[in-house]
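Box 3.1 A note on notation
Throughout this textbook, protein chains are presented in two layers. The first layer is the amino acid sequence; the second is a token string describing backbone geometry. Keep the layers aligned when reading.
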Amino acid sequence: MKTVLFLVQNHLSSCTILADELKENATEDLNLMLRGTFTWQDGEMSENSFEGIKGPDSENRELKTLQLQRSDLEQADVIIVVSFSVEAPLKHLLKATQKEHTIIRLSELSGRSMEELEEMLEQNRNDDVMSELRQKSVELAAKM
């Protein structure tokens, strides 16, 4: 089983959906972790941004967002960098681990940025966002 860590800063709704889609599109079993620096605490997500993470199976989701810990980095095989602003702290933290990681930047994938997708969720454009995130999950699965 491969452990995949999503390192987020402020794209919580869209990353949660992307992680769920990745799990469905992966060709192997994945242990997914959503970890962040929690800088999004300065501002709250709008009510509509939560619409994207609702759905028939939203109550059954196992993915929890937690503060990034060194042990998370030691467990991770793949680290998905969601926003540029987390790259500098990640480089610093990786120096403390002995493990080699595959690092994938979402900015390298096709389609809209995570910032744009998060804004679309806030505008309640959930179908458009889901389509984009499904495509990104297919690209991610192919890179792993």
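The chain has a mean pLDDT of 79. The first helix runs from residue 12 to 25.
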